[in-house]
Amino acid sequence: MNNKLLNKITYRFSGDQKPFLISIHIPKTGGRSFYELLKLVYGAKVDPRTKREDFFPDESKKEKITITKDISVLHGHFHFPEIQHLTGPQTKLVTWLREPADRVISNYYFLMFRIQSGKVKPEQRDKQSYSLMDYAKMDSQKNVMKKFLGDSDLDDYFFAGDFHEYAKEINHLLNRLGYKGKVPEIHENKTHDLNIYKLCTTQPGDITDTMKDEIREMNQADIHLYNTMLELKKRRGEPEAALNKRTH
Length: 248
Known about the structure:
Blueprint: H1 3-9, E1 21-24, H2 31-42, H3 52-55, E2 73-76, H4 80-83, E3 92-97, H5 100-116, H6 132-136, H7 144-149, E4 159-162, H8 166-176, H9 196-199, H10 209-217, H11 220-235
Parallel strand pairs: 1-2, 1-3, 3-4
Helix pairs in contact: 5-10
């Protein structure tokens, strides 16, 4: 951990406790890798909680998130309204976005992995026979990025990153934060690096461009968000080649 960096940029609290940086982790956008990087850079300043149940032990009550004064970085599966009260003039909002069809496909296989590993609630086990399109048609899986970011404006974020250019984007973000140390190696989170694909109703080789287009059609709010991120990326001078992923 770079202590000089921490002294330079850690938000100094006064009155209400407001973090220096809040990272909204949208599922399957590289958030686990990003959390590990935040811990390397900020160490004990990063809130150790990452799961929703850690922040909201009782989802029905939805009590406000609180932090102690020694914490200056939050990262988790938050919906924007859940952390809005923690933002202040110096709070930096960060999130990552992924091409919507690609994100849904990744989440499908992640669910299949968790089912086959016995890591889901009993009511989710019946989804083991779901095809990719069965999964994509569930209301809970449509426009997930929009559900997390709500009515927040990407223009107001300190950084909205492109998952598909992850290593390059990490360098850009750390430069903006003033980090001068060595950038840690980025490790891809190989969640389903098993034989689970053979047990899935839809295997990777079964996925067609038509299916991807259908998924995009069901996720128009996420398409808009993703394209907005690409426009912001263009404004900050990223290579044109990275913009060829634009989704229509």
